[in-house]
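Hey, quick one: can you model this chain's 3D structure?
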Amino acid sequence: MDNEYKLTKKLDHLALIMDGNGRWATKRGLPRTAGHKEACKTLIEVVRSVYSLKIKCLSIYAFSTENWNRPKSEITKLFQYLNIFFKENIDEMMEKDIKIRTMGDLSRLPLKTQNTISKTIKMTENNKTFVFNICLNYGSHEEILRATKNIATLYKENKLDLNSLNEINFNDYLYSKDLPPVDLLIRTSGEERLSNFMLYQVSYSEFVFTPTYFPDFHKNELIKCLQEYETRNRRFGSLKNQ
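Sure thing. Here's the predicted structure for all 242 residues.
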């Protein structure tokens, strides 16, 4: 099935909340960090699958502003796995013409992770076929507040006419500048909430929630979610289906 599947509905931007890593590991009698390690293997499979389906952009929720409340040992391991992920897959990203970008405040991340991300972004900045957007130390509340403060500062310095501000160019002040609107958001593990993820960007998105824990979210599971998306009637407030 997966080798023959092709999207028939427009889908430029897929967003993914990768949930259930810890529960996946606990069910197997393993430490929670084992779930994050397995998730990195699944993630590169997902990137390859989304890329092969000619979707233009994939955004993932890798680490939220609230995730700092987790045990320090788990956080440390998570960033170690992230560093390894970039190191092991950068050649493939370059070969496939994949551009890496991030959303979120990276300044709180470990210095090694900051340097790894900075190097990866620089290496891939001219790639154009596919955008892999990684949300790190990201929270939508913080993003919108940051944008509002930037707008207020520009107005105070007489660099912005508020009458020129609209729904389209407001996006220029968000982390998601230059990204297409999110068409579909998938959350794994059976949870049915957004958890402060891309609240502005998903205002007209379709949502699909799957009970599958992310480490088990392989290509066939992704395709099931995409097939559900293709049954949806997207009207964007009008009577015409899209």
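One thing worth noting: The mean pLDDT is 95.
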